[in-house]
UniProtKB/TrEMBL annotation:
<dbReference type="InterPro" id="IPR001810">
    <property type="entry name" value="F-box_dom"/>
</dbReference>
<dbReference type="Pfam" id="PF12937">
    <property type="entry name" value="F-box-like"/>
</dbReference>
<protein>
    <submittedName>
        <fullName>FBX15 protein</fullName>
    </submittedName>
</protein>
<dbReference type="InterPro" id="IPR036047">
    <property type="entry name" value="F-box-like_dom_sf"/>
</dbReference>
<dbReference type="GO" id="GO:0019005">
    <property type="term" value="C:SCF ubiquitin ligase complex"/>
</dbReference>
<feature type="domain" description="F-box">
    <location>
        <begin position="1"/>
        <end position="42"/>
    </location>
</feature>
Length: 437
């Protein structure tokens, strides 16, 4: 019953974030909160101290003085949209500026944590039932490593696994970031779709990773781990491991329905080097649980001879069984810790593997972070049979494969990596380098 003129006067005292929030109340409030006069005032005070505003035209901006035409010749909501575009572009610029500085060891942005903080970035998962009902799980527990971030969600309100169809992973950023106060989940936010997983037939379509007395783990690419209760067909927790490569872009630049598509690599053919694309790779490898790191190492000058190209893959040998000088010990007992509101546990013989393979000029070539497991090998190596049992870890995606062979030494109570080989898809190499192997 309050007159619109009085509501409009009240709204004129609100800041931009509050205006966006009040516009979600009803249609009347939405129309009033789109008032060009209010948003023009916000634009002039926040973006241009000399009573000018910025008018966005494609990628260029030009100063426009305040006046009658700027106020009345525009559709309702015009200056709100301009303000949001300008503020969003400013945040993206600050984030990408932080992301430009690269770590010489990993080839990845050096200030990932700072960039995430500047953007107000968080992550959520959305579980969708077969009838269309959605369950939103807000940010879980974060664990940062050199090349990845691991996020664990748990709740007492998980839907039954039988009725779940899909899981969507989103990066979430405030529509308007207020540096003076922490982001609020009830304030206007935008979503960027990172990945979508089909959970309709989880136990049949995913890779079993391991189990303890309470839960069993299933893995889906990219980087998703779902823990289900053994006694009930229900979700216990969800863990996602996200590699830093293109993490910011995928978490910020996508839309709520379409994933961010990175620009394709432009190959530059080197006619001088007959083995272009076969040498000078570098690998940064991490093996870790949620809170502990078992191995961290950088391996340079990796190469592949033409005779090692077979079955659509280039073979890059990182650790050779025959060269015991390069065998690598792992620190601690491998396992993935988990927790819920009531229970905690640790699933042995599984971990998260982070692979960052750089090309000959240090550009990220193949990157992933994924939960993997170890299996007791039935084959004998001939060299280490007397020392202890041999375990195998295998990982595969559309771009390549990783094969790791470990030996358990009973005397020292540790695992030793005695063989580590990467198999990179020749199709990826050909597309990347413009070659034809």
């Amino acid at each position: 019953s309050m007159p619109s003129e009085m509501l409009l006067k009240i709204f004129s005292y609100l800041d931009a974030v509050s205006l966006l929030s009040v516009g979600c109340v009803n249609k009347l409030f939405y129309d009033l909160a789109n008032d060009n006069g209010i948003w023009l005032k916000i634009c002039s005070s926040c973006l241009q101290p000399k009573r000018t505003i910025w008018k966005m035209k494609s990628e260029q901006t030009e100063a426009v003085p305040l006046g009658y035409a700027a106020l009345h010749d525009k559709k309702p909501g015009y200056w709100k949209k301009e303000y949001i575009l300008k503020q969003t572009a400013a945040v993206k610029t600050r984030v990408m500026r932080l992301a430009k500085r690269l770590d010489p060891y990993t080839g990845l942005p050096f200030k990932n944590k700072e960039a995430m903080k500047v953007s107000g970035l968080s992550w959520i998962i959305v579980l969708k039932e077969k009838n269309g009902k959605e369950h939103v799980m807000e940010k879980g527990n974060l664990s940062f490593k050199d090349t990845s971030v691991t996020i664990l969600w748990y709740s007492t309100n998980w839907p039954c696994l039988d009725i779940v169809s899909t899981l969507k992973l989103f990066g979430v950023t405030p529509l308007l970031l207020d540096q003076s106060r922490p982001p609020n989940k009830n304030s206007p936010r935008r979503r960027s779709l990172i990945a979508e997983y089909d959970l309709a037939n989880l136990t049949e379509s995913s890779v079993p990773v391991g189990a303890d007395r309470l839960v069993q783990l299933f893995s889906l690419n990219p980087g998703l781990l779902v823990g289900t209760w053994k006694e009930k067909n229900e979700i216990a927790f969800v863990m996602v491991s996200l590699h830093y490569h293109q993490l910011l872009e995928r978490s910020i630049l996508g839309s709520a329905t379409v994933q961010y598509a990175p620009p394709p690599n432009k190959p530059v053919l080197d006619d001088i080097d007959p083995e272009y694309g076969l040498h000078d790779y570098s690998l940064h490898l991490e093996m870790h649980g949620r809170s502990c790191t078992y191995l961290r190492g950088t391996f340079r000058n990796l190469f592949c001879r033409k005779g090692d190209i077979a079955n659509g893959y280039l073979r890059l040998t990182v650790v050779s069984l025959k060269d015991n000088r390069k065998h690598l010990p792992l620190i601690g007992t491998l396992g993935l810790s988990w927790e819920t509101d009531v229970f905690k546990g640790n699933v042995k013989d599984c971990y998260v593997m982070n692979v960052t393979l750089l090309d000959d000029i240090g550009e990220p070539f193949w990157c992933f972070s994924a939960p993997v497991s170890m299996e007791l090998s039935s084959k004998t190596s001939g060299l280490y049979d007397c020392m202890g049992p041999i375990y195998i870890t295998n990982y595969a995606d559309s771009e390549g494969k990783v094969c790791v062979k470990l030996v358990w030494l009973e005397e020292t109570k540790e695992y030793i990596i005695v063989n580590l080989v990467l198999y990179v898809s020749t199709k990826k190499v050909n597309n990347w380098y413009g070659t034809n192997y």
